[in-house]
Amino acid sequence: MSDPVKETTGTEEAPKEEGAKEVKPVGQFRSAVRGVLSNRWAGDITLAAILALAFVLPQKEIIGKSQVINEIKRKNTNYKEDPTTGDYFCGKLAEQVPLKPLKTFTVCGSTFEAQEDFGEIAMKVSRDMEADYQKYKEGKMSGGEKMKYWAYVQKSGGEENVRCLKVNYGYRDIVLQRQIYWNSLNDEGKKAWKSDEPIIRDKHQTFVAAPPCQSYHGLGLAVDVSNWGAAEPYFWKYNIPGGSRGIYKDPWHFSRGEFERKGIKDAAKQWGWFEVCEKIPVCKKH
Predict the structure, then answer these.
(1) What is the pTM of this model?
(2) For the chain, where are the E strands, in sequence order?
(3) What is the residue extent of each domain of the chain?
(4) Model confidence pLDDT, tens digit, residues 239-272
(5) Which of 95, 146, 161, 262 has its CA 20 to 30 A from that of 187?
(6) How far apart are CA 175 and CA 67, in angstroms?
(7) pLDDT, position 119
């Protein structure tokens, strides 16, 4: 869910169309997000809490796919439609159209869609987490390994967060992405979105989300993970950045291919782990 820091946008309210999806605002909960992000090892309360707020508050506006497509076309000059999903992609992401087929995966009781090779990596991460947890519970670790794993469990918020990978989202269509992006905007950001003013992340967003057509979730190459602190070291085994080593203020987001474009060294400086970055191949490379 995470993309350009600044983008020029704007449109007027459109009438409700048949089949439109309901969008509900999050209002101001910047302080809650800051509280979560102050603990890099926060577990299930991270994304789950934010998204719960985003969709239970009173109705704000209703928008359907044709309206989202019209917005995309008005706000972007370089866009392309994927013939299979009917989604639109802009800029660098348009170069990946047509997309590889999406596949459904089930992990830790949750189902999500992703491109097959990326989804398989998420499955491997979960299996690795499960295997280490079983080894720990069955007493098959050495003394040193057990102490190290125990410390990892405590930092991750308890055993419930280390058992397997907890995926909140994989693939998202442009309608859902637009809903989440709209919900990320504060009142000033919503006004800017409607009036063709630039959207500036730190000024206009209460949490990080990409506008429709610019999200790696739309490509099927990203997942949002609630137990991101526990999952982070396992994803990095497969050179998938995210967590505290990913997009600043979007630690639950793990993706492939996105960071070559955004530059993870910038994130490393913001999170304060630049020296560690220099020792990790996928990070040092960029």
Answers:
(1) 0.73
(2) 6-8, 21-23, 61-63, 79-81, 88-90, 102-107, 110-115, 167-169, 198-200, 222-225, 253-255
(3) 6-284
(4) 898 887 777 778 899 999 887 544 455 555 544 4
(5) 262
(6) 9
(7) 97
